[in-house]
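Our working data are protein records whose layout never changes between entries. Instead of coordinates, the fold is spelled out as a row of discrete tokens. Here is such a record, shown just as it appears in the course material:
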Amino acid sequence: MTASQARQGNSTSSVLGRRLGAELLKLRTAAGFTQPQAAKVLSASTAKIAKMEGGWVPVRDPDIRALCELYGIQNPGTVGRLLELARLDRERRKAKGWWDDYTLLGAMQEYVTLESAATAIRTWQPGYIPGLFQTPSYVSALRSTPSTATGNRGPDDEFVAARIARQRRLSADPPLSVHALLYEATLRNMPCGADTAREQLDHLARMADSPNITIQMFPFSGGMHQGLNGSFNILSFAESGAMDVVYSETVLTQLWIEGGEGAARYDELFKLIAARSLSERDSLLFLHDLRKDL
């Protein structure tokens, strides 16, 4: 779903809300109930059920429990995941964080708020160093590159400051777990001079030593795969797969895949790329060798 599809009049649906709504819709249809029947159990309107299933409104815990009872859902794990997803969505809608101090995030506003709530992220990057690992010099150089979508513009101090503030999530309590797969071209084609490239590679090596961070390099010799079409991030909010959402960037737009078979396909693609990437140890050696050649 694109950003424009997430708006309806003055209302805005949230990624987590749509993820929860999709689960509720799947459970209702599997149980053979209609929206009016679900609405009757909640003493609500059919429109409310439609908004809940579309992710347009926050969902209360009593409503989730009542719907699960109607749909015959007795598995505590399933109910618990729905309740946790609803809690995260409610917190996301009213969240105030570091991002409120910056005005230049644009379409990244939704992403960074979810990143702050996620427990783990798996990212594939065929073109750029992941934002969570970028040094200030790399960010400035990237912003100054004429070939970027923003055009030929100088370094933006506020954008750099926002990127650094975002990286605090890596050392929070508990820290965000990140598994990054980087295409070899990402490390060789730096948007900067040798000094900045050395600094960025040294920073990646230090990041790789962190217990919550895994970095693997996908070499040119690894061959072709679908991931070469673009980057994607898989955000997890509980155990992997239970509440995953995928954020994918194309040249001029962003795409959300909210669970289901779509997210499962990205999970399989990530596993495929990881299996064909260098090991953590060999990836670190590659970073050191590349650093020496600069």
